[in-house]
Amino acid sequence: MKVIVSTICVLLTGYGLFASAPVEQSGTTPECFLREWASGLSEGSADDMTAFYEDSKDTLAIQSTGRMRKGTAEIRKEYESAFEEVVFERVTLGDLTVRQKGDVAWATCRFKALTLHKVQNTKWTLEVYTSFVLKRSGKTWKIVLEQSTPIAGVPRVSPRE
User: Fold this and answer.
1) Model's pTM, two decimal places?
2) What domain range is 82 assigned to?
3) What CATH number is given to the structural domain containing 35?
4) Stretches in the chain below the pLDDT threshold 70
5) Which of 3, 15, 29, 105 meets the CB 3.0–4.6 Å disulfide criterion with 78?
């Protein structure tokens, strides 16, 4: 059970955990970029998910469990590990709020993932608050900081039928 919770929490922090790589098109908004990130989780590709992050040793992803991944290499490993154990059936970014100033944007949302543990064939819901700092990179955006935290009064991970 602790392994399942740990794996789901890793995925929830944005490591992983939603669609394909960012669309390189003119006019991509930070909100559209984050929704693409969320939908990319269901594809289960660590390479595609890592492409959403700035390729830097300074890029940070902090999980709701308090674990931190620094650099895209560590973030990729976390996604690889998560996708070996969990399938993201559906991910939503509720109450997504984005602010932008020039080439920098920051966002908050209520991250909710309906997941399936592959080995145990059990279904779980992961729900946390997640914040992002994004930096414009050409015609798209890149995540430079992602941080998730539990929601008061809401189980971070709960079983579902």
Assistant:
1) 0.83
2) 2-160
3) 3.10.450.50
4) 1-27
5) 15
Rounded CA separation 157/40 (Å): 20
Which residue type occupies 138?
G
pLDDT of res. 28: 86
What does the buried/exposed string (b/e) look like for 106-121 if buried means 16 or more CB atoms within 10 Å of the residue's CB? ebbbebbbbbebeeee
Distance CA 73, CA 52 (A): 13
In contact, 72 and 145? CB cutoff 8 Å: no
Per-residue pLDDT reduced to its tens digit, 126-140: 999 999 999 999 999
Query: Residue 23 has what DSSP assignment?
Result: P
Residue 9 structure tokens: 């929490």
Q: What is the pLDDT of residues 1-11, one digit of tens each?
A: 333 333 333 34
Quote the CA–CA distance of 106 and 58 in Å, as a whole number. Answer: 17
Enumerate the H helices of the chain as residue ranges: 2-12, 30-40, 46-50, 72-85
Using alpha carbons only, give the angle 146, 46, 160 rounded to the nearest 5 degrees.
75
Tell me the DSSP string of 111-143.
EEEEEEETTTTEEEEEEEEEEEEEEEETTEEEE
Residue 11's pLDDT is what?
A: 40
